[in-house]
Design brief:
InterPro entries: ATPase_NBD (IPR043129), GspL_cyto_dom (IPR024230), GspL_pp_dom (IPR025691), T2SS_protein-GspL (IPR007812). This protein is an alpha+beta fold. The protein contains 9 helices and 16 strands.
Amino acid sequence: MKTWLYLTADGLDAPCANWPCCVWSPTGERRYLPLHEAARELHGRVVDVLLPMEMCSWLRSDPWPSRRQPRPQALAFAIEERLSENLEALHISAGARDRQQRYPLMVTGRSRFQALLALLAAQGIDVRAMHVDADLLPEDKIFAVRWFGRWLLGGALSARLSLSAQVLATLKLDLPEDIHWLDEGRDREGIDAWLLNAGGHPIDLLQGEFRRRRRQPLPWRGAAASALGVLLLIWASSEVRVRFLESETRRLYAQGEQRFRSLYPEQNRIVDLAAQFQALQSRRGQSQDTQVARLVHLTERVIGASNVEVQRIDFREDEGWKIQLTANSFVELEQLRERGQQNGLPLTLGSASKQNNRVQATLTLENR
């Protein structure tokens, strides 16, 4: 059994080191204690963190037409109209595709999620995975489980909810007749073991930029310490030479930068001098006929094979071709981008927005 740390719903209003928690040991024992005490007890152990459903929202995408795994950005655009906030303010985690070819998605506030991870890191808690309590219910039946004073709804139900007893009493007549009712008041230990070891495919919130970076243990620590001592001696003997080389490098770079600015005064910002110089030289030798041929290839092989409408086409030497177009859906835009990759064209989609029943976006054919 895994070691679970459950951040209860009682601490959501004021997240801090005193957040009321529950810890399950590998033997299944339940212990209640604040977060800072749980951190001391869990020190040195990798834990699975469990969040209350009150912190997240659960949605499902429409049936996905492509067999390929969609990018998170495409899934986010597909449910954008059902969200009350901008995509930039949200952290969206995707689960496994279900039998109806839909993708379940768990949505939470990005800044709130970042603050939670910072709080756990400050307490020294090593998190392996992060799930939501209502998402742990098995998917073969519809369940309503009374757990920690609230009712969790999920499983085969097309929703993941946490309800108070009063709200549940109001909605009870609208719930399916084949729902299975469980109450921790009657069998708390059994429900704990059943929930925390249940099968299914719960969504791990540690995705994308929040994906866990695995720590690599250092083998042969004794030999590494000896090697470190030798390296320190080598470093001390070569310090003078390194400083001289650094001084010469800075001087030569300053000369090169001055020469570069004299040749290309329009380049106000220098990030990578060598890369910028090579890029400018390659662009200077690139003919306009090649750019037009690439645009013709794009319109014939990619845009011409779809139902999108082209509104405007622009060309910029440093960016490539920019085509403003209108499509019927975000899925159609994703298919357009995939078709471009199949034809060897480096396409990117940006500035996508939905107006009425149409989707407007900018398609960029980048310079190679």
